[in-house]
Amino acid sequence: MLGKLYHGYEICGMDNFPKGPAILVFFHGGMPVDNFFLTQVAYRMTGRTVRIVTDHLIFQIPGIQTYITLLGAVHPSREECVALLKEGHVVSIAPGGLREQNYGDKTYKLIWGKRHGFAHTAIEAKVPIIPYFTTNIQEGYRVCGNTGIMRWLYERIRFLVFPVLGPFPVKLRTHIGEPIPYDPNITPEELFEKAKAAVEALRDKHQKIPGSIPRALWERFEVHRKEG
After folding, report:
1. Please, what are the domains in the chain?
2. Catalytic: 7?
3. Using alpha carbons only, what angle is made at residue 139 by residues 224 and 99, rounded to the nearest 5 degrees?
4. Terminal-to-terminal C-alpha distance of the chain
């Protein structure tokens, strides 16, 4: 409800939402509220619960653990994540994580490094990967502390959330891409590159770069034909 009222939140491509176990991968914006919005809409439409993989350090912030747990957040090991998938769950993972949240900007460059863990997990569990991307997520929640000294500090303590401006009531629209099916002959590195390219393709198709807060606000009033 909050997403609909404040951001005019919509999902395009809901036909691609998995009917069985799968891993959702996405670009981690300045504040990944789209992940929670998608989870809530998916539950209302399909009755399925998405388990949101979250950095275990987030659970150490006082007052946060109970709230995000209610929203479906978990911090499993790879083995536990495989077990969730084999039980039939949908698991959501942002490979860029907190680094992408802190370092990302209005160019929407993916900062995934060599974080192949989700690809290893998908292969081991024999499940597809579903890419998605949310337009204007960086305009709704704009990171403003991406400076040299902040990056220096983050790289040493690895747990620092840069200051975020917002929320701005911009239009948020999630685009769910076509599944990348399980392939027993693919390597984790190859699957990683395919998933990254799929998210980038959704970004290039649906996001105007560089992002603009005024334009994203104006999109609240534009008529859009839903896809899928």
Report:
1. 2-221 (3.40.1130)
2. no
3. 125
4. 21
Q: How far is CA 182 from the centre of its chain?
A: 20
Total residue count of the chain as it appears in this document: 228
Per-residue pLDDT reduced to its tens digit, 48-75: 989 998 876 666 666 666 656 666 667 7
Helix (H, G, I), strand (E, B) or coil at 73: strand
**CB-based contacts of 122-127 (< 8 A; 24+ apart in sequence):** 122/23, 122/85, 122/182, 122/191, 123/182, 123/184, 123/186, 123/188, 123/191, 124/78, 124/82, 125/21, 125/81, 125/82, 125/85, 125/86, 126/182, 126/184, 127/20, 127/21, 127/22, 127/23, 127/85, 127/182
Q: State the virtual CA torsion across 37, 203, 31, 178 in degrees, nearest 10.
A: 40
Query: What's the helix, strand, coil split of the chain in %, to 5?
Result: 45, 15, 40
pTM above 0.85, yes or no: yes
Instruction: State the catalytic residue, choosing from 7, 28, 89, 116.
Output: 28
